[in-house]
Amino acid sequence: MKKIFALSLLLSSSFLLVSVQAQESSVPASFSKALQLAGIPAQSVGVYVQEVDGSGKVLASSNAATPFNPASTMKLVTTDAALELLGPAYRWKTQAYADGSQVGNVLQGDLIFKGNGDPKLVLENFWLFLRQIRAKGIRDIRGNIVLDRSTFDDNAYDPSEFDGDPMKPYNVGPDALLLNYKTLTFQFVPDADKRQVNVLLDPPMSGYQVKPPRLGQGSCDDWQGKLQAAVDADGASFNGVLPASCGEKTWYVNPYKMNSTQYFGVVFRQMWSDLGGTFSGSVKNGVTPPDARLVTEWNSVTLPEVIRDINKYSNNVMARQVLLTIASDILKVPATPERGARAIQSWLAGKGIDASGLVIENGSGLSRNERISAKTMGRMMTSAFQSPTMPEFVSSMPLVGYDGTMRKRLKDQSVAGQAHVKTGTLNDVRAIAGYVLATSGKYYAVVCLINHPNAPRGQAAQDGLLQWVYENG
Question: In whole numbers, what is the pLDDT of the chain averaged over residues?
Answer without folding.
Answer: 94
